[in-house]
Specification:
By secondary structure, this protein is mainly alpha-helical. The chain contains seven helices and two strands. The protein has helices at 7-15, 39-49, 57-61, 73-81, 100-111, 136-147, 166-193, and strands at 22-23, 29-30. A two-stranded antiparallel ribbon has the order 1-2. A hairpin with a 5-residue loop joins strand 1 (22-23) and strand 2 (29-30). The protein is globular.
Length: 194
């Protein structure tokens, strides 16, 4: 891990079995945080976040044509079954790197984070508008993550079309899970108060 700023987030994902890392010959687990994350890896992370739901043989049959036999075949089939990924011409391109905007949309959809915060009248990052990010759902997802303080950007920018590393992905997933859990605790507390 090249930067201690991601250490806690990576450890959170490893402890919760959302990320598994790679074991070396001595059994030591390595997490290659500075490597770009792929679509297949993101599918695996989110599949584990969702509790490893059941994937049927029909789900596998109806999955993307380029995911059959892939190491994350089940995870990718789940993404498609749930409608979290549409692909292009029946393909997901599971070994392609993920852009920051793609991850934002997936995280918000999978964790249903849009219900946690109102984004009406909130200002997005300076590089996220209808000219730079055409998909309105992506712009809204980025704003949800910003308002939940899961992402902070750099100098007021999000860099939506930039590839995202595994350690940055870990930070966003861990932050989103923390906000989701915090919201659940607040709801339970408010319910008991009344």
């Amino acid at each position: 891990m090249r930067d201690a700023q991601f250490k806690k987030d990576i450890e959170t994902l490893l402890v919760r079995n959302i990320a598994t890392g790679v074991k070396d010959a001595n059994g030591k687990v390595h997490f290659f945080g500075d490597h770009n994350v792929t679509r297949g890896q993101v599918a695996a992370f989110l599949f584990r976040v969702a509790g490893k739901p059941n994937v049927s043989s029909d789900d596998l049959q109806n999955s993307f044509v380029d995911s059959k036999g892939h190491q994350f075949e089940y995870e990718i089939a789940w993404l498609r079954k749930e409608g979290f990924a549409a692909g292009i011409d029946g393909k997901l391109y599971p070994d392609s790197t993920v852009k920051r905007e793609e991850l934002a949309k997936l995280i918000v959809k999978v964790l249903n984070l849009g219900e946690l915060v109102s984004i009406a009248d909130q200002k997005n990052f300076s590089d996220v508008d209808d000219k730079t990010v055409v998909d309105k759902a992506v712009r809204e997802a980025i704003l949800v993550l910003k308002e939940l303080k899961v992402v902070g950007g750099v100098d007021g920018k999000f860099y939506p079309a930039t590839s995202i590393t595994q350690e940055q992905t870990a930070k966003i997933i861990a932050g989103a899970l923390e906000r989701k859990q915090h919201h659940k605790c607040l709801c339970c507390y408010n319910f008991r108060k009344h």
